[in-house]
User: Fold this.
Amino acid sequence: MTAKVTMYTTRFCPYCMRARSLLKKKGVEYDEIPVDGDNILWEEMAKLSNRNTVPQIFINDQAVGGYDDIAALDRNNELDTLLEIN
Assistant:
């Protein structure tokens, strides 16, 4: 079973693009919530993550941070475990 992944993004954010690419490389499907110009969604994201930058990535409803955070998890061989990839 693979983890539920949700990512709050904006369209042209380079870190969002990198996060999409990393998750795609891992074969992970995710729900993407675009917050471009939507203050309500942006506030929801900030409240859930305690951060005000994109992307904000959640694995099984747990905030794990942005691209730099999942890239570090991947380098430390911890991301696959969180994503439940065998």
In short: The mean pLDDT is 96. The beta strands are 5-9, 31-34, 56-59, 62-65. Residues 21 and 55 are 13 Å apart (CA to CA).
